[in-house]
Specification:
Blueprint: E1 7-11, H1 15-27, E2 32-36, H2 39-49, E3 53-57, H3 65-73, E4 82-87, H4 92-100, E5 105-108, H5 113-127, H6 133-138, E6 144-148, H7 152-165, E7 169-173, H8 176-185, E8 190-193, H9 202-212, E9 220-224, H10 229-238, E10 242-245, H11 250-263
Parallel strand pairs: 1-2, 1-3, 3-4, 4-5, 6-7, 6-8, 8-9, 9-10
Helix pairs in contact: 3-4, 8-9, 9-10
């Protein structure tokens, strides 16, 4: 599949904003675009038409974009549909539920053509992943990955991206405490962890891996929606190998992993 073949639904109450988004999509080469002005109309149309991608505002007349995404993720027939949020909202408490539920991307308002292109490329990669040079160089199929996140949905979408890159072997943990138990029982080539988790968070998990684990040199990639610079500085001091935004683009992850695996 190519970007031009994607079928996109826009969910936006403002006709002006819908037109702006549609113009951006057309510039990216997408011809198949439909729209809805509220969440209920969108859910009905999505159930009937099954678009490849839903592009939604955060604030809708009858629900939030987060509510819309949650309903999609809870529907067995619709849960795999890619979801991009476009919003001028910057507060963590409003955006984090979107990121935790497996959004493909969160774009600012206004967004650039480059930002939209990255989101579309990630959508395409999740639908039809392609084997790349990273898999050929490092034999990713043989590597053991520990995936740590208290959100099952977030684990699912991170796993999908990593599978698309070429990884095949995963062990999942629901928080840092569970991860440490898994590490006592298995050897891992890569740890991919969230930051905000109950019991033991990503920062403390990283610290314990570096100070107390028999796998002190394992690469640790932290995937997080956290934006507080003070907290992120603490994470880096704990010994994380790299930080990556949630949701993340496949190409960005490839570049980070190439560096981490080369160094290890």
């Amino acid at each position: 599949m190519r970007i031009s073949e994607l079928f996109v639904m826009i969910v936006e109450p403002s006709k002006v904003q819908r037109r702006i988004i549609e113009d951006h999509l057309k510039k990216a080469g997408i011809a198949s675009v439909v729209s809805a002005g509220n969440g209920q109309d969108a859910l009905k149309a999505i159930g009937e038409d099954h678009p490849d991608l839903v592009v939604s505002a955060l604030y809708l007349p009858d629900m939030s974009g987060a509510d819309l995404l949650t309903q999609l993720r809870n529907d067995d027939e619709l849960k795999e549909i890619a979801f991009v949020l476009i919003s001028s909202e910057t507060q963590f408490r409003y955006l984090d539920p979107i990121k935790q539920n497996g959004a493909t991307a969160v774009l600012p308002k206004p967004f650039s053509n480059e930002q939209l292109q990255t989101a579309l490329n990630t959508t395409l990669h999740n639908i039809e992943p392609e084997e790349g040079e990273l898999d050929k160089e490092f034999d990713l199929e043989m590597m053991q990955v520990l995936l740590v996140d208290d959100s099952p949905m977030a684990r699912k979408f991170i796993r999908r991206t990593l599978t698309g890159i070429g990884f095949k072997n995963f062990v999942e943990a629901c928080d840092g405490a569970d991860a440490l138990k898994k590490m006592a029982e298995n050897y891992f080539d890569l740890v991919v962890t969230d930051y905000n988790m109950p019991n033991i968070d990503g920062q403390e998990l990283t610290r314990q891996i570096r100070n107390n684990s028999s796998q002190r040199s394992v690469p640790v990639l932290m995937v997080t929606s956290e934006e507080n610079e003070g907290r992120l500085a603490g994470v880096q001091q704990a010994g994380v190998s790299a930080l990556c935004d949630k949701p993340f683009a496949a190409e960005n992850v490839k570049q980070l992993l190439h560096r981490l695996l080369s160094e290890s």
